[in-house]
Design a protein that fits this description.
This protein has helices at residues 3-40, 95-102, and strands spanning 43-59, 65-75, 85-92, 108-116, 128-135. The longest helix has 38 residues, at 3-40. It has 2 helices and 5 strands; from the N terminus they run H-E-E-E-H-E-E. Strand 1 and strand 2 (65-75) form a beta hairpin. By secondary structure, the protein is α+β, with helices and mostly antiparallel strands. It is elongated, with a radius of gyration of 26 Å. It is 31% helix and 36% strand.
């Protein structure tokens, strides 16, 4: 073999390796993006829950998120004879939904929510994100005082 044939063969192998490397990187990035979407943005379930709004707060160090707890009617227990209330902990992303819930703490509310596979820190600490308040005592939104 002459030197020219070896050079062309190595050059061809280098180009082929670069092509496969590019394709491999693109496929790896796509797999990572799909896995991230599945873990944090795929809606696992949707539903409606009703109960007494126990508390609703805005908290966080860097990302301030709305978090709340709903106490539902009824009791569930793992052992017979014991009582335990059903608690539904949730996050809220929409400011208009948060404003309604802030004004209805301690009252009976009905909430529509989405359940995600995992929480993400800028969306809240819960897998459950309330997207709509279906039923609550409507309060004048122009009144910002908690009590009249």
């Amino acid at each position: 073999m002459n030197d020219d044939t070896i050079f062309n063969s190595n050059y061809f192998n280098l180009l082929t390796m670069k092509k496969f490397l590019r394709i491999g990187i693109i496929i790896a990035v796509l797999i990572i993006c799909v896995a991230f979407w599945w873990r944090y943005y795929f809606v696992f379930g949707e539903g409606v829950k009703a109960g007494n709004l126990n508390f609703f707060v805005k908290k966080g160090v860097i990302f301030k998120t709305y978090e709340g707890r709903l106490i539902q009617d009824g009791f569930k227990t793992a052992s017979p004879g014991a009582l335990q209330s059903n608690e539904f902990e949730f996050s809220v992303v929409d400011d208009s939904v948060a404003a309604i819930l802030e004004r209805n703490s301690g009252k009976i509310v009905e909430l529509r929510y989405k359940e995600y596979n995992n929480p993400i820190f800028w969306r809240g600490m819960s897998n459950y994100v309330v997207i709509e308040v279906l039923k609550a005592n409507v309060v004048d939104p122009g009144n910002t005082l908690p009590f009249k």
